[in-house]
Amino acid sequence: MITLMLIGLLGGLITAVSPCILPVLPVVFLAGGSGRGEDGEAAGKPARAQGDAEAGGGGTAGGGGAVATAPPKAPGRPPRNRRPYAVVAGLVVSFAFFTLLGVTVISALGLPQDILRYVGLGLLVLIGLGLIFPPVERLLEKPFARIPQRQVNKEGSAFVLGLGLGLLYVPCAGPVLAAITIAGARGEISSDIVVLTLSFAVGTAVPLLVFALAGRRVADRVAAFRRRARGLRIAAGSLMIVLALALALDVTAAIQRSLPDYTSGVQRKIEDSDAARQQLSGLYDNSNKELSRCEDGADELRSCGPAPALEGIDSWFNTPGDRPVDLKSLRGKVTLIDFWTYSCINCQRAVPHIRDWERAYRDAGLRVVGVHSPEFAFEKKRGNVVAGAEKLGVDWPVALDNDLATWDNYRNRFWPAKYLIDAEGTVRYFTFGEGQYDRTENMIRELLRQADPTVVLPKPTDRAMDDLAADRTPETYLSNLRIRGYVGTPLVDDRPAVYRFPKGDLPLNKLSLDGTWTAGYEEFTAGRDARIAFTYRAKNANVVLAGTGKVSVLVNGVVTKTLRVTGSPTLHRLTDDRDPRTARLELRVDEGLQAYVFTFG
Question: CA-CA distance, 455 to 449, in Å (whole number)?
Answer without folding.
Answer: 6
